[in-house]
Structure formats: structure tokens, C-alpha cells
């Protein structure tokens, strides 16, 4: 009796999933901050292009990479 573990995805798919998850986490980290310690003071850094354009693009790219990882076939 061989006790072989069969995973749902191949090694390549898991690596691609790791990249996708890293992109999502990086996007959410880039979205944080920009607030002000004093509620009476407005900080315009909250509307920086990094938070408005780059971070959401990274998150959406990460989700797209996850979809690719799920659809990728195993190498035989």
C-alpha cells in the first residue's frame, strides 16, 4: 500500500497562487494610511495616486492571477 497524497493543484499552481496572494496583500497594505492624527486637520495624502490607482490595480491583478492559478493545468 502506497500512501500517496494527491493535491488538487500542482506545485506550479500553488506558486502562482502565492504570487497572487502577495499582490493582494501588497495592494491592501498600500491602501492603508493617509489619515490624520488630528480630526480637525485634513491630510491630502489620502488622495495620492498610490492609494487611488496603484493599490486597487494591484489587488485586482492579484485576483486575476489567482484565477489563472486555478485554471492552470498540472504538468505531467
State the total count of DSSP E strands.
0
Main beta sheet: none
β-sheet strand percentage:
under 5%
Q: Which class do the helix and strand fractions yield? A: mainly alpha
Number of helices: 2
Could you tell me the mean pLDDT?
Answer: 88
Rg to the nearest angstrom? 19 Å
Helix content: 55-70%
The global form is elongated
**First-last Cα distance:** 23 Å
The run of helices and strands is HH
Low-confidence stretches: none
Short description:
With 76 residues, this protein is mainly alpha-helical.
Question: Which key terms come to mind for this protein?
Answer:
mainly alpha, single chain, 76 residues
Layout of secondary structure:
Elements: H1 11-31, H2 49-71
Structure description:
The protein is an all-alpha fold and 76 residues long. It has a domain of 52 residues. Helices cover 58% and strands 0% of the residues. α1 packs antiparallel against α2. The chain is elongated and about 65 Å long. The two termini are 23 Å apart.
Amino acid at each position: 500500500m502506497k500512501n500517496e497524497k494527491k493535491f488538487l493543484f500542482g506545485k506550479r499552481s500553488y506558486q502562482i497562487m502565492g504570487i497572487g496572494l502577495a499582490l493582494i496583500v501588497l495592494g491592501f497594505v498600500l491602501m492603508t494610511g493617509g489619515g490624520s492624527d488630528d480630526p480637525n486637520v485634513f491630510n491630502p495624502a489620502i488622495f495620492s495616486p498610490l492609494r487611488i490607482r496603484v493599490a486597487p490595480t494591484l489587488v485586482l491583478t492579484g485576483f486575476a492571477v489567482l484565477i489563472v492559478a486555478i485554471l492552470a493545468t498540472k504538468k505531467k
